[in-house]
Amino acid sequence: MRQPRRGRIQGSDLQEHLDRGNAVALELELLTPDWVQRVPTDDRSDQDTAGDLLPHTGWTDRVVAGEVNERR
Predict the structure, then answer these.
(1) What's CA 54's distance to the chain center, in Å?
(2) How confident is the model over 4-32, as pLDDT tens digits?
């Protein structure tokens, strides 16, 4: 079992972080159902990513219907 890290992350830890991130990405790809929407995020602004996500939430349908901020 891995020991918890102590102190600050060092630059030499980069490969370990990259390897762990790649392993998690692969696990997500293999275990996530097909119905889950995938949106690319690499080299994109938060606004661009949110613009792709928003239509999948159903919230924009409420905005068009004038239902936003009804509950306060």
Answers:
(1) 13
(2) 666 676 777 888 999 999 999 999 999 99
